[in-house]
Amino acid sequence: MDHLDDLVDLYEYRVEDLLQGRTPKGGKQALLRLRQLLIQSRLPGPLAKRFRQADARFRAHRRALAPEAQAPVELPAIAVPEEPEPPPPEASPLAALALKVWRLQVERDVKARLEALLAGRREELRLIHAFLDNFALYRETPGFKRDFNLSRFVPTRPIPSLSDTLVDLDDPKVAQALVVDFLETARELPKLLPLPPEETRTYVRRFLNRLLEWEGAYNLPPKPDLPALRRALEEARRLGAGEKEVAQLEERLRKAAQEARRRELLLEEEKGRFRVALEKVVALLSLLPTPQGETPWPRVPEPGQEEEGLLTLRLAPGPVALGPLTLTLSHAGGTWYLGLEGEDHPLEDTLVLPWEDLEVWAVRENDLLHLRLEARSGLRLYELLAEGRLLAYLLHPGKDYAYLRLLRGLSARLKGEFQAQAFGPALAEKYRKAPEEALQDFARKGLELTLKRLGQADPLPLLQEVGQALGLEAEAQTLGQALREYLGRRPPTRETLGGEVHFLALTPEPQALKVDQHVLSVRLKEDAVYLGQAGEVPRRLKDLLVYRLGGKALVLAREGRRLAYTLLPLP
User: Fold this and answer.
1) pLDDT at 84
2) Is residue 183 in a domain?
3) Mean of the pLDDT values across residues 56-82?
4) What is the mean pLDDT of residues 415-429?
5) Residue 202 CB partners (closer than 8 Å, separation 6+)
6) Which superkingdom, per the lineage (predicted)?
7) Is the per-residue pLDDT at 53 higher than 70?
8) Where does 416-435 have alpha helices with state H?
9) Last residue of a domain, which of 170, 200, 220?
């Protein structure tokens, strides 16, 4: 994969040279040989798109040449399968609604991350500010639209200092707006450049790396001119200057050398800190919608089609049923209003209304209105469901509780005490004998400890190492990807949880919960919730419960009198 990436890069550079009127390195024949090699290679999706775009520019250039100037070289068709791309957000009203919902999600997600971004020296926010400053200037330069490899980009704006009063990055509202602006800028990149959406992260990383390579980015004092001081000292000695004058020059040179060393140490320290910040900034791009990031596009049903907590309709006065709620739409004085519990709210572009421990999101596009019920901004129910998805793996008894053994092995490996024989199939006997409630508590505590030891590290490489030692390579890959998603999609949303999230308001009276072909009884009794099927002992639901139903796992999360649940296939 790496060598193919390099070859595609080389092809892009050579085509760009050709378009700029320069002879490509190695000549045109070398370019044609490289093109033929890439045509015959099985390029993966992202590389295939980059190659198709570069090759389209190359073929357009050849067609633009006069017939007599063209070389008699037959250009074969590119045998790279086309992949369907999602329509741009402006392509349809439903897609425009989905974009507005995504923006609401982003604002909420960024707000949830602000505490971490505002801590310490705020390197991530300062780096984002410098990115936006430099990008805004660079996009106005003549060669910007062709320079998707940033070969001509020269940074001009430094990273703002921590004490810069003009930036005001200690204000949460300013910080939130800055991160949202960064994500919107990154989302627009494929429209501004001949850049496949999948390459957005690569472009931003390359841009930030170029910025951090520039010494002027760090607002350091200028380098002392040591060569000039040495020449002055040598000249003074050659001309026989007095001892006092020579001593003064020697002292100046000594102090300048010390200052240069201090500056170099400070530069390395700053570079190190901002390299760490760069990875955290690039990680924020996971909030972008697919295929640019890792966040699925919000589900927006067709007008008139209602799904669980989702509804799209055409604006018309009257009552609107959304889950357990009855809303009202009214029109007066040229303005539409959305009514909730007797209070009317002007309905413009987007509207978020709190209701108990949920929120009503209303998004409008011309005469279309999309309504959805979401968990309150605390996101506790969604956080619990995301944790429950991992617990569904850990509590699965297949292959002698393979996933739980892998997690414990990973925890021991992170502590430096991993021995494969200690996590073999014999360990599963303890799990089989443990009560279900005790085993779930044990798995949750193990997950919490492992994630604390893991920190910001990628879980997959270490899990693959543990999986190889235990003979569970496939399970280690599956669990590693699940952990990656859990760590990379915080806070979670309805879409990152799979879309099928259901809500239930708890009451003291028994309630029937229909899931697939099963009917479960749910009852709130003295602030405790009990759940089970007919003929079995009910299980107690504290805040989270994984309940097996045949070949699937029902994950239930509780906060107060609100219950959220989702059904997952067992691994």
Assistant:
1) 36
2) yes
3) 52
4) 88
5) none
6) Bacteria
7) yes
8) 428-433
9) 220
Mean pLDDT calculated for residue range 1-22: 74
pLDDT digits (tens, 9 = 90+) for 251-276: 777 777 777 788 788 888 888 889 98
Domain ranges, residue 392: 379-488
Most distant pair of Cα atoms in the chain: their distance: 108
Q: Which two tokens stand for residue 280?
A: 């955290």
Q: What's phi and psi for 231, nearest 5 deg?
A: -65, -40
Residue 311, helix vs strand vs coil = strand
Q: Count structural domains, the chain.
A: 5
Last-in-domain residue among 488, 512, 547: 488
- Lookup: tokens for 266: 């400070």
Side by side, the strands of the sheet bearing 318-322 are: 318-322, 325-332, 335-340, 343-346
pTM for the full model? 0.60
Contacts for 164-167 with beta carbons within 8 Å, 24 or more apart? 167/126, 167/129
Q: What is the pLDDT of residue 421?
A: 87
How far is it, in rounded angstroms, from Cα 6 to Cα 417? 39
SS (HEC) of 112-168: HHHHHHCCCCCHHHHHHHHHHHHHHHHCCCCCHHHCCCCCCCCCCCCCCCCCCCCCC
Tokens of residue 197, six digits: 């959406």
Token pair 């390359």 in the structure block, residue: 206
The DSSP letter of residue 295 is: B
Report pLDDT for 65.
Answer: 60
